[in-house]
């Protein structure tokens, strides 16, 4: 194998990395050891900071298959290096490693699912991954994930559970019986303990890690240097400052670790019951669970310790930990394709695709529903850090570096200061040699000039503005878990908004219904709760087709379902276990109308009423539920009226989808026009459908039938029209954003025309603007993918939308002149399917569509994330504001994600607003701008402070003098620290303005500002330095002179009157020193005022009483 090989692991994924193999080299190790001794340990520090250098300095390249150490580099723009040591997992000592006891053995070290191999193939399977007869498997651990060597692909890959490559049929046929104890023990050896281990590091470990930060090492070097130069007080002050900074940092870091540990530790010690192959039950700790275990979900609920797929029963789950949305979700058992001939037997199980059947780690099972005499069972598919919660925790533990131009420019600026220090270093050596200074003093003074270039308070000063902004945000109800993002929020120039619950009210009001009879729409009806409709299939659909449940006697579930159910006034009852005998062992949810509606619902006289009253009660049992799927945009149920022989199937969902699944002859011819009329007015429209099922479908057959077998050949019943009102503050907030030149984009899962209508109502699209809908069609039947363009407004005016000539649409604007597009004010709108097609087949159009796309409808959660990435690729700083549900990926990916969840903190979003109002968006941007400008001001001030002090010292070095210990102390503590921490207190400006703060330090205006101040400062110091020598009272320094005592200006450096024999060996008490010190002290204050920028991003300085007091004190 080529020793220079480079392989890729996690290919195509977010954490894709290059991997290189290395072996330890004894001779290189010996040379490095010698270098460490010669450099006094500095080389060791350098190798500690640079993993790539560490590996290359001590190892030689080797084939990945045989290497001892792997070097990893991320393939993203950061190119971050990591290293990991190869370890060995020995199978020979394990009591269950014999092939005879591994009839269900998993494939070892493969990044695929658990593949069941016949017993005779086990030995051969082991040989693929274990390289020696002793059955040792090579692996390494990176970011809490184990990567095993796989001989088949000649690379490392991580071991997955049942979440990939396993068909739904296989879940039932091969995994539903459970594991033997031997197989369980063997899998536990490979998968390890099922825990999301967030170890809280000891204070000592954190201290060592913090102290070994390059900045603190530089501080240590500086302190040692100052002590040798007898600057004891100043060195002590810097030590105290550093200790305070380290302690504060340690407290903050440890607190975050403890909070994260407490968050993930809730399921660590749960006891669970698992089913074994011989149908025996075993109670084990949740930490012992492995993929393939069959877990029994207890009646009283449980906090899930793993990801598992339901194979028996139904669960009501609270997923707020993952999504931020506290609405309970109904989880049903995974359909068994082998039972239903129409089912897709080869369909692969996927936790995302089948999330309505998957119980995710960390979510709370509130209630279970089950078959009498049977348990609610789930098969473990993922454990530990592979679970959904584990992946979330990993993203918090190992976040991506924050890429922001300010920080890149700050490092460049520091390098420039180091270069300036280098010039001073050379000047000091030459000047000292010419003046025949001792070698020891030359070394100390030349190194001292370097220490001046990196101000001791720089890290604390740079974070001060962010800390103050975070406190101000907390006061207005915005919580932040990623403080560095506050600065980035100051650059936001585009904000994406979810619609429902964000721009509009969370709840929907039922505006009315429009039923269909004889393939014609009837007139809209407002009141659904009446005796004429109580027994209609339309009302039966509204009563049964939902995911509502009773939790502690209170009806809860999706807000839309709640409104719909409340509108008909029915009663929902969940049967007790004793009542299940009436319904053939299953426990259905029962719905029935209130009794007062039934007697009056007969159409004729008393005789007919008596006949009607023969059945004592009219109720419907919900036999099977197919939950709502955002991918399918529909849900359905199988129900049965008490006493009826045949069951009914009811379906509701997006009108276009429902109509496509109905018999064409039952859909009214004007369906499209009626739908558009409602959606254009901003209503949310839901369609209903129904069909009678065959009598041969029994209760048990229904439990295993696929939804495809039910959801077809339906009768179209009509429309439910829901009204979704705009939140009161929405138009005003969007207007403020537009005035500030911040683009707004709507990303919703709702209907296209409804979204466009809401966008117009809230001012996102102005009345005179035109909307072009891009309808992209994927390749089909040999035809290439294409895009149809049409105006949204023209659809309602034309009876045949397809007849609109695409040539009338200025498609050339999309391809050619964006300037014309800006003048004519066009907005592009598209749905999720079109967006995916454009991403895949029209890459050249993506940037242009991103620049003018305003409405993105019917977007799935992953498409929202892709949209954020696409907008970032055209250099937008993107904010995302959502209600927490289905927006987690987009909230995490955006530069500034704001969740409007009720939870006080959400792990899915950098920012969380306590109040569900989008008014938090301009507040966050204002505070971000203020924090960003503060960072610029502080950095410029600290840079000028370094340059001013550097020039002061350089001038004094020319006469072999320097500033005194107390002078340094006064400048750093009494002036610099006080000014830095008070100049950061300026609050944000009261309103957003059109101009944005600069994103980097390298810009004309900023450089001119800094350079002009440098020139002025150098000029005045030089003038004072040479002017004082022209004065008649000037006296050249000699060891016995005491200029300070004569002028009485620096009382802290003056000699005692009775100690006239004390000599000024360091040449401190001279006129040049005094002059330069006073001039530079005033320059620090003047520069602070000059750089304390106020309007239009921060409040002016005179409103900051602290900085005013600091300047008075400094003066």
TrEMBL record:
Which top EC class is given?
A: translocase
CDD domains xref list: P-type_ATPase_cation
- Catalyzed reactions per annotation: putrescine(out) + ATP + H2O = putrescine(in) + ADP + phosphate + H(+)
> What Enzyme Commission number does this protein have?
7.6.2.16
Q: Which key words are in the record?
A: ATP-binding, Endosome, Magnesium, Membrane, Metal-binding, Nucleotide-binding, Phosphoprotein, Translocase, Transmembrane, Transmembrane helix
Q: What biological-process GO terms show up in the record?
A: intracellular calcium ion homeostasis
User: What superkingdom heads the lineage?
Assistant: Eukaryota
* A Gene Ontology term for the protein's cellular component: recycling endosome membrane
| GO MF annotation terms | ABC-type putrescine transporter activity; ATP binding; ATP hydrolysis activity; ATPase-coupled monoatomic cation transmembrane transporter activity; metal ion binding; P-type ion transporter activity
The Cation-transporting P-type ATPase N-terminal domain covers which part of the protein? 176-226
What is the similarity comment for this entry?
Answer: Belongs to the cation transport ATPase (P-type) (TC 3.A.3) family. Type V subfamily.
Function statement? ATP-driven pump involved in endocytosis-dependent polyamine transport. Uses ATP as an energy source to transfer polyamine precursor putrescine from the endosomal compartment to the cytosol.
Q: Which protein are we looking at?
A: Polyamine-transporting ATPase 13A3
What's the source species for this entry? Callithrix jacchus (White-tufted-ear marmoset)
Q: What is the lineage of its organism?
A: Eukaryota, Metazoa, Chordata, Craniata, Vertebrata
């Amino acid at each position: 194998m080529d020793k220079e090989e480079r392989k890729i692991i996690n290919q195509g994924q977010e954490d894709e990395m290059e991997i290189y193999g290395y072996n330890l080299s004894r001779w290189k190790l010996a040379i490095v050891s010698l270098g460490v001794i010669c450099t006094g340990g500095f080389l060791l520090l350098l190798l500690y900071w640079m993993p790539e250098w560490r590996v290359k300095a001590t190892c030689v390249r080797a084939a990945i298959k045989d290497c001892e150490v792997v070097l990893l580099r991320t393939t993203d723009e950061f190119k971050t290096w990591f290293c990991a040591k190869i370890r060995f997992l020995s199978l020979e000592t394990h009591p269950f490693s014999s092939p005879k006891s591994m009839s269900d053995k998993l494939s070892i070290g493969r990044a695929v699912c658990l593949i069941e191999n016949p017993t005779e193939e086990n030995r051969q399977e082991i040989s693929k991954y274990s390289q020696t007869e002793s059955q040792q498997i090579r692996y390494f651990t990176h970011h809490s994930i184990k990567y095993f060597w796989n001989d088949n692909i000649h690379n490392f890959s991580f071991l997955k559970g049942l979440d990939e490559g396993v068909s739904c049929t296989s879940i039932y046929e091969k995994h539903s019986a459970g594991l033997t104890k031997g197989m369980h023990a063997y899998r536990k050896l490979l998968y390890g303990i099922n825990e999301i281990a967030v170890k809280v590091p000891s204070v000592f470990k954190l201290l060592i890690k913090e102290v070994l930060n390059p900045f603190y090492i530089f501080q240590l070097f500086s302190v040692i240097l100052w002590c040798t130069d007898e600057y004891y007080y100043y060195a002590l002050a810097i030590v105290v400052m550093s200790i305070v900074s380290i302690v504060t940092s340690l407290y903050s870091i440890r607190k975050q670790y403890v909070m994260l540990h407490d968050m993930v530790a809730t399921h660590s010690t749960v006891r669970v019951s698992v089913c074994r192959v011989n149908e025996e039950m075993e109670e084990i700790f949740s930490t012992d669970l492995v993929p393939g275990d069959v877990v029994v979900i207890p009646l009283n609920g449980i906090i899930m310790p793993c990801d598992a797929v339901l194979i028996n029963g139904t669960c009501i789950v609270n997923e707020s930990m993952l999504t931020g949305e506290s609405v309970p979700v109904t989880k049903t058992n995974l359909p068994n394709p082998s039972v239903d001939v129409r089912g897709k037997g080869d369909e692969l199980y996927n936790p995302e695709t089948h999330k309505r059947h998957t119980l995710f780690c960390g979510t709370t099972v509130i209630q279970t529903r089950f078959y009498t005499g049977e348990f609610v069972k789930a098969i473990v598919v993922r454990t530990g850090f592979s679970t959904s919660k584990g992946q979330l925790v990993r993203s918090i533990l190992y976040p991506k570096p924050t890429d922001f131009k300010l920080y890149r420019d700050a490092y460049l600026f520091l390098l420039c200061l180091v270069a300036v220090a280098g010039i001073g270093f050379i000047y000091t050596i030459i000047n000292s040699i010419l003046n025949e200074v001792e070698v020891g003093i030359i070394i100390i003074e030349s190194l001292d000039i370097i220490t001046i270039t990196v101000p001791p308070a720089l890290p604390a000063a740079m974070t001060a503005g962010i800390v103050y902004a975070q406190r101000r945000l907390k006061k207005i109800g915005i919580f932040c878990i990623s403080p560095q993002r506050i600065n980035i929020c100051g650059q936001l120039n585009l904000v994406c908004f979810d619609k429902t619950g964000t721009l509009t009210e969370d709840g929907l009001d039922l505006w009315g219904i429009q039923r269909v009879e004889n393939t014609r729409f009837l007139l809209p009806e407002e009141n659904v709760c009446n005796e004429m409709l109580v027994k209609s299939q339309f009302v039966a659909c509204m009563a049964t087709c939902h995911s509502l449940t009773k939790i502690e006697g209170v009806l809860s579930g999706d807000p839309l379902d709640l409104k719909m159910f409340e509108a008909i006034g029915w009663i929902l009852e969940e049967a007790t276990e004793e009542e299940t005998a009436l319904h053939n062992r299953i426990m259905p949810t029962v719905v029935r109308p209130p009794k007062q509606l039934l007697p009056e619902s007969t159409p004729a006289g008393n005789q007919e009423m008596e006949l009607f009253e023969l059945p004592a009660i009219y109720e419907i049992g919900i036999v099977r539920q197919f939950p709502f799927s955002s991918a399918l945009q529909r849900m359905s149920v199988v129900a049965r009226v008490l006493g009826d022989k045949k069951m009914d199937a009811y379906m509701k969902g997006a009108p276009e989808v429902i109509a496509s699944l109905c018999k064409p002859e039952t859909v009214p011819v004007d369906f499209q026009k009626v739908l558009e009329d409602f959606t254009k007015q901003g209503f949310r429209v839901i369609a209903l459908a129904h069909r009678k099922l065959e009598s041969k479908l029994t209760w048990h057959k229904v439990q295993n039938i696929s939804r495809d077998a039910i959801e077809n050949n339906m009768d179209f019943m009509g429309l439910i029209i829901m009204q979704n009102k705009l939140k009161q503050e929405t138009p005003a907030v969007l207007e403020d954003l537009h005035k500030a030149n911040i683009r707004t984009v709507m990303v919703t899962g709702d209907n296209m025309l409804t979204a466009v209508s809401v966008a117009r109502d809230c001012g996102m699209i102005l009345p005179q603007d035109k909307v072009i809908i891009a309808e992209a069609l994927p390749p089909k039947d040999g035809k290439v993918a294409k895009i149809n363009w049409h105006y949204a407004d023209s659809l309602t005016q034309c009876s045949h939308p397809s007849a609109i000539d695409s040539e009338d649409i200025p498609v050339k604007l999309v391809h050619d002149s964006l300037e014309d597009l800006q003048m004519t004010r066009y907005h592009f709108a598209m749905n999720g399917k079109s967006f995916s097609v454009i991403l895949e087949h029209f890459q050249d159009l993506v940037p242009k569509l991103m620049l003018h796309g305003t409405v993105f409808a019917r977007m799935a959660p992953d498409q929202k994330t892709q949209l954020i990435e696409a907008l970032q690729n055209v250099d937008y700083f993107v904010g995302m504001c959502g209600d927490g549900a289905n927006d987690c990926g987009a909230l995490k990916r955006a530069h500034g994600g704001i969740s409007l969840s009720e939870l006080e903190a959400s792990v899915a979003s950098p920012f969380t607003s306590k109040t569900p109002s989008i008014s938090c968006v301009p507040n966050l941007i204002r505070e971000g701008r203020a924090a960003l400008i503060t960072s610029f001001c502080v950095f410029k001030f600290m840079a000028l402070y370094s340059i001013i002090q550097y020039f002061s010292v350089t001038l004094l070095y020319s006469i072999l003098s320097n500033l005194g210990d107390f002078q340094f102390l006064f400048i750093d503590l009494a002036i610099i620290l006080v000014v830095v921490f008070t100049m950061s207190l300026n609050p944000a400006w009261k309103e957003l303005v059109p101009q944005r703060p600069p994103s980097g330090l390298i810009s004309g205006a900023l450089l001119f500002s800094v350079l002009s101040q440098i020139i002025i400062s150098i000029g005045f110091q030089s003038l004072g330095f040479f002017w004082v020598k022209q004065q008649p009272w000037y006296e050249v320094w000699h060891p016995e002179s005491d200029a300070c005592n004569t002028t009485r200006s620096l009382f802290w450096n003056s000699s005692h009157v009775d100690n006239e024999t004390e000599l000024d060996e360091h040449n401190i008490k001279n006129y040049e020193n005094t002059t330069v010190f006073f001039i530079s002290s005033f320059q620090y204050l003047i520069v602070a005022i000059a750089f304390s920028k106020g309007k239009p991003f921060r409040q002016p300085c005179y409103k900051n009483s602290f900085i005013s007091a600091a300047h008075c004190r400094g003066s």
